Amino acid sequence: MSSSSSNDDDGGDDTSEVHRSTTFRRRKRAEKLKLRLLKAMTGVASNQQDVMEASVSSTIREEDSSNPSGKTCLTNVTPDTELAIDMEERDTEQRSSQSEDNNSSPGEDDSLQKKRNRDDSSEDLGSEKSTDGCSTQFFRLEHLANAGGGNLGDDDPDDDDDDDDPDDDDDDPDDDDDDPDDNDDDVDNDSENDEGNGYWAELEVANPEEGDNNAVDNGDSDPEDDDPGDTDSESEDDNNGNGGDGNLYFNPQRMNIICHLYANRSVKEVLALVLALFDRHSWTYESLIDCFLVLNLFLGGNFFPKCKQSLWNALNRNSLGMKRHAYCPRCRRSLGRYKDLPNRIQCPGARCGRVFMKRNIPYFMELSLKSQLAHFLARPDASELLFSKANRAKHNDAALEDIYDGEEYRHLEDGNEPILGEYDFTYTFNNDGFRCTTSSSVQANPIYIRLNELPLNVRQKHLFLAGIWMDKGDPEMVLFLQKCLVRQGNRLSREGITWNAPGKGVITSKFLPTCCTVDAKARCIMMNMMGPTGYYGCTFCPIEGVQANGVKFPLEEEEEGEMPQPRTDAELRALMEAAHDNPLGDHQGVKGISPLMYLQHFNLGTGMSTDDLHPFFEGVVLFHMDKLLTDNMAPYYIGAPANVAIINARLMSMKPPTLLARTPRTIDSRAKWRGHEWRNWILYYAYPCLTGLLPQRYLRHLLKLSRAIFLVSRDSVTENDLREAEEKFTEYVREFQNFFQVECMRYNVHVLLHVVRAVRCWGPAFVHSTFNFESWNRKLKKHIKSMKDPILQIVNRHLITSFISSVPFDPVNFSPDVQLQVSSILLKSDLKTAETVGDVHLLGQAEHGMVSEEERLALENFNIRNIQGLTRYKRALYGRLEIRSTEYTRSGKNNNTHILSWNGTFYRVKSIAKVRRVNYPDTCLLFVHQVELNGHANIVSHFGHVALVQNHHLEVCSFESVRVFAIHAECAGLSLIVPMPNSCEID
Length: 987
Known about the structure:
With 987 residues, this protein is α+β, with helices and mostly antiparallel strands.
């Protein structure tokens, strides 16, 4: 039986049954440890060592005579000494536990072993015991901390205690104090009557089967191992094996140097650097305040906040316009502003009428979009970013390459009186929930908006939080949207924001809604319509559905060649009004008025996007593969162990580029796959992995979906691409019904028929994907440290993150080196740039050399002559593409050597070079070999068959001509290459 189980048993302190060898070893260890520690802590001279040794030995002998149990009593030892003895003895006993077990007598029974384990555990825990009048006391770490004013027994990881500062009277530090200077119209400054809001904590207590808040692993923890490159990390025994004092100490020659401040830094610059560390490493507030206190001590003044309240004052949180709206936890009826509630509140609902204490009333948070947008517009580079749309370079003027090219966006700009003015902007909004912890039923639902006019590489980095709801189940969407989105959105579209745009003067910009991108469930809730599993559950067309083991949406025979007629804005508004007047009538799935009906300039018919994450990858692709791998009586079954082993072997041999965040996992672990893994499967891996295993007709069917998704996800979508994609989607849905029957015609399969329409309206699929917003949900989830006021934790940390992210772009308030340091902290990149030439960042060690004859001919063919020198590199960063040459040997599971150019040619990068010429600036180029193709695969045409015999003629390719990475796969006797559809998507 293990010691952990024996700890649960009740037992006395009698140690008479402990083996004599164990008792002897413990006494000898205690004697040696006390002697060494007393020497180290009292600084005894060498000529007094014999006297002390005799004294300690005498003391131990006296203890032995008065203590038959064998336990050693420590006398005349300071608490610090006892703490050190406790810690070192525990470490020593752990190292020798194995040898003690081996020395136990063979006849030792289970009861004796239990009692011995209990005694070992009791000593390890340092508990207080009394045996025959002898008291052994170990001072535990928290005892010493409490004696010094610390509080290591804090149950709230986010520091919701009242120990930050003796002058801080805020019992809930995340709430503001009653400050007469606060503006109650903008910020809630209500007190909690010495109690925090316990609603969400009680929800967790009410579900004992749910786990604790899952600890967030940032992936950056520093293991306690030695640095392999540090020659001093491991040494021989001290003093030629005689042992040292066994303690760490400061090197006096290095540590006694007096520190001087040579850099003139403002308080806000130091504050920004510390807050960047706080955000990057997910510090607790206690750690942050302690860091500020150390800085105050070091600088000799109170320059930095000493408590959280002073931190919020320093960051001017009161100007952010946060409002808390309370609602009844039973009927979810609005109860007004949280700060205005009395201590006891009765729900005004006629069917409810329950009475609640204020601390048990839930609320949702509204954040001022105007304040957040005004803060962003104050950035020096805001004007350049927002007006960059006019300067963008399109690769194909007739293609869809961004949201500006969609029909609905152009409609806002066209006409004699365009809705969208010269200085106006648009936004996409999203609402998608996430569970607060892995095993919790409490769900957080944020509302994001994202400015469409920002460049693609910047757009994802700047999302604005309009509000957040946290409770079990789905939010009360009418109340939530009306308070947080509709009211604020209408104010932004009517009044706008006045700001100073460099080069344009003081202007007023209005913000208009364009597209809502959410999953099917949230789309139906926001539209106040039947869910996707009910009749008329499609928000895009009035298909009724049939009952076939649940409501399904098959294609009727007479409709198989036609697309369903879409709903229009006018039709939906009429149905909503009719449903409001007559709730019992048949209104084609519309249950009543949606709050979005009152959002000005929002089109209910075309404003909802189909998304790609949920219907494509987590919907249809996942369901399709489950059918192939689990229907063991079907002709398409490939789930036999032998087939799965082949698929796994092929899948694990794939080497995708690093732009795909996750390398492949085995197909039998697909239950844990994320959405981007299913995307990679259908676009890149399915064809080579299933070739020769899945019958040809079923493989062709699956790859029609692959081809259609590839076409609508490209960085430049032409009209021919749209027509082919619509044809492939329709064929896939029709064959899906034929192969798997009506019972499998779920809503996600039906919605594929509406994808091309959404792409025509709003541009390529990745532009209005929920992938971007899902990544921000993960960031918000990391902000939750406990279930005490989790909304405030999210909001406070999100605002700090937003503030810190603007520092690298603010040269007015921050010096260049501070901007660079904050940027390096936040980027979390391990790429070491050797040199930057234009938009190309050369990475790694430079290799200077002569130009070979082959390289000279390639450069001349590229019209580059008069070469002075050439420097080679193995890696280079261009935009989001980290291009690697074939000379880079540390690629491991990734391959970044294959690229597709804008002229449609595949290349393999041999080397990366910086060329120096006479009277010309330095130029970065790629030496490449063209990948010869035998033609494109008939079964899925975005795959190319690589020729067995390659032309090794060296060519030159510019970085500007690189379009995307390509993935090369060799399996099933095939050599295939497939390009990524774009380089803008994120995982």
